[in-house]
Every structure is written in structure tokens, then in C-alpha cells.
Methyltransferase family protein (Murinocardiopsis flavida), 247 residues
Amino acid sequence: MSLAEVRDDWTRLGTDDPLWAILSHADKRGGQWDEREFLETGRTEIDAAVAWLDRLGVRPATERALDFGCGAGRLSIALTDHFAEVVGIDIAEPMLVHARRLDCAGQVRYLHNTRPDLACLQTGTIDFCYSNLVLQHMPPELAAGYLREFLRVLRPGGAVVVGIPDLYRRSAVGLLSRFTPRPLARLVQRHVLGYPAPMRMHTMPGDAVRALAAANGARVVAAEEFDNDPHWRHMRYVIVKNAPGGR
């Protein structure tokens, strides 16, 4: 699966049913999300993440935050309650159209990025990076590349909170997602389930996340299971970038 395919799939999802594509609740399909309710879920999630950092004693500076895979801005807008500047990045331009519309106050700087890196951001310019329910839709090699980029753009002492499943559960959907050939999975999602475009799921083991962090001058300081999903075990990690010459 190429990055161009990821872009094409999410461009279609962002055109046809953007809010449901981001939070795929069964009763919200077909444009049924109330926009205020949708944005409130983002505030709840970001407030909980900031509280988690505080409990861990992880206190990045509050100058600049990044929301990677920002979609329609659900989390980007919520981050403006905690950071002076917020940058939202997404691969699908239609998603960014919705994000800019929902960001009535124009508080977020949204960037369209179709590269396998974050060359649009300078090294060491971000205090906090948040990415949830995003990397799971990319092949592991692409996801790992972006995770390395999160750490590159982070300032020393800055933090990443990233969510990505670490395993498939032994449910019918989980096992089918793991073992079904990709063309067949796309066919089922498009023509049986009626998705505007397929949403492929991938995992990254926790050991791989820790090794990648260590190889890029950072460390995982906490990990927790969240989002009680019957098909994948979703994990969320707090990664802190080491200060020069130390931990």
C-alpha cells in the first residue's frame, strides 16, 4: 500500500463522510454527526491527554503543538485551549476544508502534506505532538517514518502522545483484518460494507515503538491501553525527547 493510495482513500472519505470517517460510530454514518458534539469529543480527549502528562510529571512548553492526521480539526481546535500555536497536518485536502470551516476563530494553521516526511516543519520547533487513530491506517514502514519525523521536529524535553494498535484481537473482524489479502479487504469494505473508501488497519508492536524512540534520542515514559475495541488492542504512548547529553 503506497502513500498515494492512502491519500486517495482519505480524500474520498473526506469528500463523502468526513466526520464519520474520523469517528466511525455506527449511528453517525451518513452525515449524522452534530458538529458541536463532534468537536466536544476532541476537547474531552485532549483534556484527558494533558491531564495524563501532568500526572506523569511531563510538562512540555506550551508554545507550539502539532496535530498529525488532523482530519476535520477535531483535536487541533481542542489543542488551542492548551497551546499558543497549533499546526494541523493532513494528507486529504477535503478534510482540511472542513477543518478550516469548523475552526471559526481561525486559531489553527492547517497544512496539506502528501510527503512521507514532515519537511514542511523545521527540526526542533514543536513542543507537543499528538496523533491518534492515524498511523494505524498506514503500512508499518510509513507509520515508522512519520514517528521518526515526530521526534525530529520535537524540541528537547518535548512530548509526543501517539495512539496505534499493537495487536489484532482474536475476533472474526480482527483475524480477517490481519489475514485477508488487501485487494479482497478493499472489495469487502467498498461493496459489502458500503464504505466510501476502504480503511485498512495495521499494528505496531510496543517493542518496536520503544526501539524507534530510543534510536531517535527519546524514550517511552508511559503506555496504556485505551478505546475498548473488540478487534484491535489500541495502545497510547507518551514519548519524551531527551535533552542534549542526557535523559
